[in-house]
Amino acid sequence: MTEGANRTSPDYVRLSLAAAITLSLRSGLFYRGARLHCLNLLLTYEGGCRARCAYCGLSAGNGGGPGSFIRVEWPVFSVDEVLSRVRSSSHGLERICISMVMHPQALSHTLELTRRLNRDPGLPVSILVNPSTIREGDLEALREAGADMATVAVDTATEALFTRYRGREAGGPHRWDRYWRTLEEAAIVFGRDRFGCHLIAGLGESEKEMIDTIQRVRSLGGRSHMFAFYPEPGSNLAEAEACPPSRFRRMQLARFLIDYGLAGSGGMEYDEQDRLVCFGLEASALDDLVESGRPFLTSGCPGATHECACNRPFGDGPPDDIRSYPFQLEAGDIELVKKQLAIYNELPPVLKEPGSESFSGG
Length: 362
Ligand code: SF4
Prior knowledge:
The protein has helices at residues 17-22, 79-88, 106-119, 138-144, 159-165, 176-190, 207-220, 245-259, 283-292, 331-342, and strands at residues 12-15, 38-43, 68-69, 72-73, 76-78, 95-99, 125-129, 147-155, 195-201, 223-228, 269-270, 276-278.
């Protein structure tokens, strides 16, 4: 299917390539049989997204599209065609997500699509809200239209990084305070565990800064959907270095502990470069958790039978260098993760016991 000038939302949406394959709108097979459980839709407009986020392939700063987003192609399809496929195929989908982009009509089109999706096929709908295009009261309208969850893509762990990559310094419209106000509103409108925050690890933050931000989200009642920075072809950061796996594994583990109430950031310890050296949990419990593989799965909105329905296969790393696992880890994956956790550049193995002075090996 080719792209045309008038193929824009609300009648058309972009579909992640994984979603297009799941609905047999594109041919292809998933590496190791990964299966998608959330249909990710992205609003689409001529000229693409009007924001200028430095790491995003849809940014106006890169010509506005077609561009890739989370490292995969997002082909355009009519909503009618997508819904007819959702109705007729056996797909295992447990959620649908609408990602807003920066466009004056994004809110009204998101409301329209939410109402439509809520009627048919009736799967729970998440909205990846763009705070720069909504006003007070709009989250309530989204919830009344049938949205089940709302998530805000703050993306960066610190205000300085936000301003550099998304805000004034990037020539973009987004503002840190506005994003956090929207998260606070989402906490009130959608309630505990019904809202989330997207975060990208590896944009220049320290581990402590990321973990403090994850804790801030959890203290509001939400969960962090954290993925690794992996350079987006065509973006302003196309040549930047990907988030090292060892660093990401440690932040994944800490995120899981915080988001599921197993430890708090206050009990975690860092070295002089703010790198995690203690997770605030005794080693045997931590080892069990690592062996389960759960902390290293993709984090995202839940489904009827999955802790995370939105598993975005290979959205933050290629199949031969997986960051977020879209499927249950096998023994070989766990061994690799353990090595990645233990080898931290020049640091000795991690996993220090809380309160102890020595490292106990990872
Ligand atoms: S985690 Fe997935 S389903 Fe939830 S808002 Fe983000 S992209 Fe959408």
